[in-house]
Amino acid sequence: MYNPLPHLINAVCYEGVLGLTWLANKMRVSKLTYVDQFVMAYGGLRGAIAFALAILLDDISFPDKNLFVTATILVVMFTVFVQVRDISVNK
Fold it and tell me: What is the DSSP string of 42-54?
């Protein structure tokens, strides 16, 4: 059975990033390029897609669905808050 939820999440994330960066570029001296916007949107989708796939698991086929959802949230939070320290900004 086809579920359009992951595609909808992708579209909303891309539109949100493009819209907000367009608005931010109106006031910025150093503008964000389309490559910067794509990287921001694509990087932000990893957690959204993983979470959407975990939520879509069938309760009957996967009795431990809540465990999968919790593990997915923890991995996303770990990558966002802990691994972000490894990113260095070249100036």
Answer: HHHHHHHHHHHHH
